[in-house]
Amino acid sequence: MTKDLLGRHHAVLPDWLALYYEEPLEITHGEGRHVWDAEGNRYLDFFGGILTTMTAHALPEVTKAISEQAGRILHSSTLYLNRPMVELAERIAELSGIPDARVFFTTSGTEANDTALLLATTYRRSNTVLAMRNSYHGRSFSAVGITGNRGWSPTSLSPLQTLYVHGGVRTRGPFAHLDDEAFIAACVADLKDVLGHTRPPAALIAEPVQGVGGFTSGPDGLYAAFREVLAERGVLWIADEVQTGWGRTGDHFWGWQAHARSGPPDILTFAKGIGNGMSIGGVVARAEVMNCLDSNSISTFGGTQITMAAGLANLAYLLEHDLQGNARRVGGLLRERLRAVAAQVPHVREVRGRGLMLGIELTRPGTDEADPAAASAVLEAARDGGLLIGKGGGHDTSALRVAPPLTLTVAEAEEGAAILESALRSL
């Protein structure tokens, strides 16, 4: 059955639509932190549909909210008043930390970042954008244009002039040998130098923890230092929280809060986990920035009632059950367990991350060279052991991505770590 479906997939879908595994997997249903495939095999899910099933598979509170809303009305567009959309916007505006916040809903993180770029370039009357090396911001034409990751950048054409600065990767690059304070100072000096060679930019867009790039990040406080430089020049800061938001990092509700010394970002984008599988993305910005557009705009599917009902139920569950705290506690245990394993596996260069957003970087033993084949081998071995994980990396890096639902239990963390240990040792 799976082979037949794979043949049909290749017959009608693009060649560049990548599939995991030598024998691709059809997931048919899930419950809690587990999913099942078409052959009836059960897996512990440590990737959640790319960090999207944030709370749990088939979470009763969310499925009930979706079912009840579906029985009333699915959709009406933003041309009509929409109570669930207003209610979710109120919650997110309050949680964002941005003063006088306005919220616009989209259907994906790509669309959210696209909207943020539209706002920033319009507000600043500039098409120059600063972005981070090793970054990823989505699949649209403008998002690809600011993506600093060659593996996810299929064209050099762009409506934007993009300039890339250092800082998104702590343990690689020309500043890797410096301590945190000196690293930040060097990155700030690089930023100032870039600003001296270009027209005034519209914004800096940055992921607090780079997702597709392999869960890399700069030291805490890096973007606060950047913001001081940017604010002097009126340049906006866009925090791409598509993967880091909603408490996944454990220490903070938003990734930008690890860099909060200079205040919140001007624009925040979100998506993925808030819908727990439903298509929700969005932008938060202070009113002055959000309202800068001087023509009409709507969203046909952004903010549609059924996705808003799911988001409200999911956010309520997350807050009421302190899933941020669970990510901090269980994620900390999982990170230390993986670091203990890594110390005995020559292929592992680094275990990094925070909360339930962990990266395992693999290299060829005895070298600092990326080993993509090893990453693929561990992905396959983990699946054989009953565990689903992700992979990523940027320039000359290869990493495994571990990002379970935030309801992960200690027992499940231990189970997943044991499977990962076996998969890593199989190298």
Q: Mind summarizing the main beta sheet? A: 7 strands, mixed
Kindly, what is the distance between the CA atoms of the first and last residues, rounded to a whole number of angstroms? 31 Å
What's the number of extended β-strand segments?
Answer: 15
Order of helices and strands: HEEEHHHEHEHEHEHEEEHHHEEHEEEH
Q: Which class of secondary structure composition applies to the elements?
A: alpha/beta
| Strand adjacency order, main sheet | 4-10-9-8-7-5-6
Average of the residue pLDDT scores: 96
Beta percentage is 15-25%
The low-pLDDT segments are none
- Estimated helix fraction: 25-40%
Number of helices: 13
Topology:
Layout: H1 2-12, E1 27-31, E2 34-37, E3 42-45, H2 48-51, H3 60-70, H4 83-96, E4 101-106, H5 109-124, E5 128-132, H6 141-145, E6 161-165, H7 180-195, E7 203-206, H8 222-232, E8 236-240, E9 267-270, E10 281-286, H9 287-290, H10 305-320, H11 323-342, E11 348-354, E12 357-362, H12 372-384, E13 387-388, E14 390-392, E15 399-402, H13 410-425
Helix pairs in contact: 3-10, 4-10, 7-8, 11-13, 12-13
